[in-house]
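Hi U.,

Before I forget, here's the chain from the pilot set. I'm dumping it here mostly so it's searchable later in email.
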Amino acid sequence: MSEAKQGDTVQVHYTGKLEDGTVFDSSRKRGPVQFTIGREQVITGFEQAILGMNIGESKTTKIPVALAYGPRREDMVVTMSRSQLPPGLDPQQGQRLEITQTDNKVLLVTVTSINESTLTIDANHPLAGKELIFDFELVKIV
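Structure:
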């Protein structure tokens, strides 16, 4: 049987859960995700878990913080003046915003708090600092 190896393009069904069992994402209702192992198209732990799997095989893997979205970084939480926002933008707590940095890179942030004059934004990935548990099924090696 064919084993998934570095450089293979694979199709995988997955369900991602937090340690308390909360499901944060699943491919089951929309079809398997396709990626090439080694191209960093998914988190490192996801890729590593698929290596060596056979078509039709299923397994559950716990992915540590370092191989998922990394540790939560407090230096990525910033309070800024509302006057720095584009005119007409009325951000809401929990809203995701795109911010263009001075080097023209776009950063996705979450609004974590708002008051009359400031808002606090968090550039950490929402799953940063969390161990993730994935149920995997290798559907196909393309």
